[in-house]
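Hypothesis: this fold can be encoded by more than one sequence.
Test: take the structure tokens below, design a sequence, compare later.
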């Protein structure tokens, strides 16, 4: 029998593992994939996440594997600036900066730090049931008993669906392609994340290492025209954007619809707690999905320092985290709607240009300030 099981070896589950290890708390982490391998695309670790990695003594390793990003710019489709948030002041204040990194590189750093001996690969959860403890049934035919369970198994969480029976997935009606390309970006884009807004479509890109670019393209479902050549949907955008897409191999592109989770009333029950996307999946428009799961893990760790009672910790964890998480989910959804307007884009861009940078900074700081 396990005292503690973490279901899901994504960024939230692995961060929780690192935090429990730092406190000498034993656990086993179950991951459905057969290996932690280089799948997925890029990801931005914002200042809130990097502060937590600093406390885990992983900040420098992550910075070295990725690329520091000092500014975030929204532009029109011709890359003409609409609004810019320069985070240098916030970097100084919090002694951390945004880092763009390949998701697989980040997972590898986190997994190596907790040690592969605590990770059970090829363990996809099929069924979870509550008896005296929790009985976990895995797709590979094994089962185990666990006293405490953390559901870190994403937006389609089996733990949430089977134990709570709650969680409605909301579809934004937006289609998203994420790509990795080998590409020499002009130098002015080396430490900046760019998102170009058009009519019912947008394109974002950021440099992760010397020649590795992570990009994403979002199109409203109702105006998506062509299946075969993604770039054809973006004619009229800056030539650099079309070139990035054209230089990307098909096997390096992942397609998803953009979805989130309607807020659920409770993230915990007796001896069990959901974290990250399993509890509060958000759209990616604030770049905070994984970052919020890292914060979840951090807050659970802080609470466990002073209280060994897991159920009391779970209760306090939701009280502390709820307000911020609801704000992130709601704000991200709204930004996603505005950025995908099909009409009135001139007015939208004008309004966003008028917003003072100090306001944008406040919005960013609200997101990156840790609650404990």
């Amino acid at each position: 029998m396990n005292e503690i099981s973490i279901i899901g070896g994504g960024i939230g589950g692995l961060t929780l593992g690192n935090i429990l290890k730092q406190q000498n708390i034993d656990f086993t982490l179950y991951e459905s994939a057969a290996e932690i391998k280089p799948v997925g695309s890029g990801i931005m670790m914002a200042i809130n996440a990097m502060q937590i990695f600093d406390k885990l003594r992983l900040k420098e390793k992550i910075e070295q594997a990725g690329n520091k990003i000092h500014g975030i710019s929204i532009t029109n489709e011709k890359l003409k600036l609409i609004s810019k948030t320069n985070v240098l002041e916030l970097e100084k204040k919090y002694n951390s900066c945004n880092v763009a990194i390949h998701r697989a590189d980040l997972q590898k750093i986190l997994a190596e730090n907790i040690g592969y001996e605590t990770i059970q690969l090829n363990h996809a959860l099929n069924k979870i049931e509550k008896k005296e403890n929790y009985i976990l049934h895995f797709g590979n035919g094994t089962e185990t008993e666990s006293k405490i369970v953390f559901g870190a198994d994403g937006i389609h969480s089996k733990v949430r669906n089977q134990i709570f029976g709650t969680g409605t997935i909301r579809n934004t009606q937006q289609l998203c392609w994420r790509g990795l390309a080998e590409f020499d970006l002009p130098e002015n884009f080396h430490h900046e994340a760019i998102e170009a807004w058009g009519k019912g479509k947008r394109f974002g890109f950021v440099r992760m290492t010397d020649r590795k670019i992570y990009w994403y393209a979002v199109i409203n479902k109702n105006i998506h025209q062509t299946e075969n050549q993604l770039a054809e949907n973006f004619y009229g955008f800056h030539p650099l954007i079309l070139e990035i897409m054209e230089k990307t191999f098909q096997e390096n592109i992942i397609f998803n619809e953009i979805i989130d989770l309607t807020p659920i009333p409770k993230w915990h029950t007796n001896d069990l707690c959901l974290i990250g996307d399993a509890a509060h999946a958000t759209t990616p428009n604030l770049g905070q999905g994984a970052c919020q799961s890292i914060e979840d893990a951090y807050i659970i760790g802080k609470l466990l320092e002073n209280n060994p009672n897991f159920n009391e910790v779970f209760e306090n964890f939701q009280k502390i985290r709820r307000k911020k998480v609801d704000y992130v989910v709601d704000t991200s959804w709204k930004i996603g709607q505005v950025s995908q307007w099909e009409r009135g884009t001139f007015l939208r861009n004008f309004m966003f240009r008028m917003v003072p940078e100090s306001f944008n900074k406040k919005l960013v700081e609200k997101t990156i300030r840790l609650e404990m």
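The CA atoms of residues 36 and 108 lie 7 Å apart. The mean pLDDT is 95.
Hypothesis status: open.
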